[in-house]
Amino acid sequence: MKSFKSWLNPKPWRTIPSDDSDSCLDGIKTFQLNKEGVEHIRIMLYGPTGAGKSSFINTVETIIRGRMTCQALPDAVSGTSFTTKYQTHTIKKDSSTIYPFVFVDLMGLEKDRKKGVCPEDVDLALKGHLRDGYEFNPQSPITTSDPCYNGSPTLSDKTHILVCVIPANTANILTDEHIEKVREIRCAARDLGIPQMAILTQIDEACPEVHSDLKNVYLSNIIKKRTEQLNVSVGIPLNFIFPVKNYHSEVCLNEDINALTLMALEHMINLGEDFVDKN
Fold it and tell me: How far is CA 205 from CA 192, 208, 254, in A?
C-alpha cells in the first residue's frame, strides 16, 4: 500500500502568502470600485456539471458574512446541471448596499453537444446580452426577440473576469468533449479581452493528505499534478489556477477553507478591476 508521505513534497510547490486570512478578508470587505458607470466586478463561473460553481458562491458569501449561507442552490447529485437560469448573485454589505463584486453561475457543461449550456449563450453572456431570469435551452441559444435578451449592454452588464471551475477528484480532470467546449469559451473570452483563471475544487476528495489536513494542499503531489493537467488541457497558466475547498459538510467556519477561497477571490477581483480600468 502506498504511503501517504509519498503523496507529499518536502517543500511547497507554491509560495503561501504570509498575510493571514483576516487581513485578506478585510481588504476584500473594504474594496471599492472607482469606475464611473460600473457598479461591480462581474465574475462569471463556468465548468462541468457538479464541479462546485454554486457551492463556491455560497462559500464566498459564508466567509464574508461569517455564517453559513445558501444563496446559490447547489445539488449533491451530479450528472445534469442543477442551475437552469442565468442569475446574478450579490452579497449584502448592509441593509441597503451590496459588495462591489457579483457572481454569475452558468448552467453546467456536459459531454453531449446538445446538453448543458450552449457555448453560444456563454458568448452572449460574456458580452452582456443575457438578463437575469433567462432560462437556458441546451438545444439552442437565446434569440433577440426573447424578453431576457439585452440588446444594449453596458460595461456593468458585461463579464469582467471568467473563471473555469474544475473538480480535482477525477483522474483525467476533463473529458475531450469538455475540453472542446472550454476551449471554445476561452477563445470567445480572449477575443473580448476578458481575463481568465480557474479554481480546482474538491481537492480534499482528490488527495488523502489534503483530506486529513487542508494545509497540505501545496505539498500535495496529486494536487500539483491536477493543476498541471488543467494547465496542459485547456491552456490556463499555472499561476492562474487556484486549488480551493468549498464548504460542504462543515457547519462552522474553517480558517483553512477561508484562506484558500480568499486567495482565489482576491485574484478574481484584481483581474476584473484591471479589465474594467482598460475599458
Answer: 35, 7, 17
